[in-house]
Amino acid sequence: MTDAPQLALFNSLTRKLEAFEPVHAGEARVYTCGPTVYNYPHIGNMRAYVFADVLGRTLSHRGYRLTHVINITDVGHLTDDADAGEDKMEKMARAQSQSIWDIAAHYTQAYWADIAALNIRQPAKWSIATDYVPQMIAFAEKIAPAHCYELDSGLYFDVSTVADYGRLARAVTDEGEGRIEAVEGKRNAADFAIWRKTPAGETRQMEWDSPWGRGAPGWHLECSVMSGDLLGFPFDIHTGGIDHREIHHPNEIAQNQAFCCNPGDACDLDTPANSGARVWMHNNFLVERSGKMSKSSGEFLRLQLLIDRGYHPLGYRMMCLQAHYRSELEFSWDGLAASLVRLKRMIIVAERLADVEAGEPSHPKLAPMIEAFEKAMAEDLNTAVALTALEDVLAAKKVDPAAKRAVVERMDAVLGLDLFGTSRADLRLRPKAAAIDEAEIEDVLALRKQARADKDFATSDALRDELAAKGVEAMDGDPLGWEWKLG
Ligand code: AMP
Ligand code: ZN
Fold first, then answer.
1. Is residue 29 part of a domain?
2. Which of 383, 404, 426 is the last residue of a domain?
3. What is the pLDDT of residues 143-160, one digit of tens each?
4. Among 97, 129, 399, 413, which residue's CB has the most CB atoms within a 10 Å radius?
5. 458 is in which domain, residue-wise?
6. Bond from prior residue into 234 cis (ω within 30 degrees of 0)
7. Distances from the Cα of 45 to the Cαs of 283, 285, 429, in angstroms?
8. Which ligand is nearest to the CA of 238?
9. What's residue 79's pLDDT?
10. pTM score of the predicted model
11. Residue 293: is its pLDDT beyond 90?
């Protein structure tokens, strides 16, 4: 354990900052709602996993034995979270004339590539929804007698059978106001399908036999089952994006209450553990004003698009860290460029420590910075402030390099910027559209440097023009700027 101040996390369920107290001494068990793999994730989705990663790293840094589970939803998530529309996977498979399994495999790989590019640590387990269907059926059988009813279209959860339904949500009341009642026969507008029967005469690509007929599990059921199975109820922390606070997580909570409590028990949410998790945490959205984030817009904001334009993906991680996870973050290309330059400044200094062996992570000069860092992270993961503490350490003068290296390593283990694994040259990615390769650019720049040293300005200017003709702008003077960029 560190001697860091007590970790306080904002619990969306109680709407309060709470001191983190693990359910099992010395352990932290965290479940993160993962992607529905019907398409590439956009960079807003990836913000949710950067946040969960920082949370996990912070818990590890504090000495907790972390068990982190992220699920992959490959069945059951409908085009409308409120239980309407069709399965996102089925729809995409039809549009691309491929099997759902191929769609799932392709987009899961793409998601994992983004996870790696953003230096997000591997969770203990990626749980794949379709691997848990028998467990889902068993869970549903257990809660069905006291909490569910059957309609032609499936097995529905009656939200009036649990206490405090919808407490987590902000927009939805107990009456389910704001929901569309999409299914005839539901007892309450907010009731949701935990098993969707395949309509008579149809077959779905993915369907299983169940006591309620052939069909597929509901999306909310999946997360209840995988989190409970792998982490045990109650576990410590459940995370997701802020949209999940409105429907998906209230529904998971209702199922967890039904599963964990005996019929007739009060089982209210004044005891957060009845919800299945002690703490529910939600990251706010990444927003983009022109609508480029939407997956239905042609060229949407995927991490690969940033890379294709020459931005190193860790520049995006930096952008996420600069904002508090509970604040909305606005994406802009200028903002991304500024984040990348900030990262570059840090990496230039870190490179000076490349050959230094880490010593004791302490030094009188660094103590206040370490304290500021720990305090910031303890206050509901204030990465924005923690970053400045790390920069202060990097900038500190007359400090034993071995101590400095150790402290930077420890802080970077929490923030995950990979300062010692990334070089200044790595950050200068070649945009996909560039008509000239990097080695060529470097060669011309070397000639130009020599020409300038020789005070042969005519040659220097000619070389600059040669690059400009290929769309490369040579940048002089600013040691922190880029030596070149695409014009
Ligand atoms: P999905 O694949 O749609 O289930 O979303 C994956 C994760 O991304 C969920 O935790 C969402 O809450 C989250 N999410 C969706 N859109 C955004 C956004 N614009 N900014 C941050 N998180 C988001
Ligand atoms: Zn989920």
1. yes
2. 426
3. 999 999 999 999 999 999
4. 129
5. 429-486
6. yes
7. 10, 8, 23
8. 2
9. 75
10. 0.90
11. no
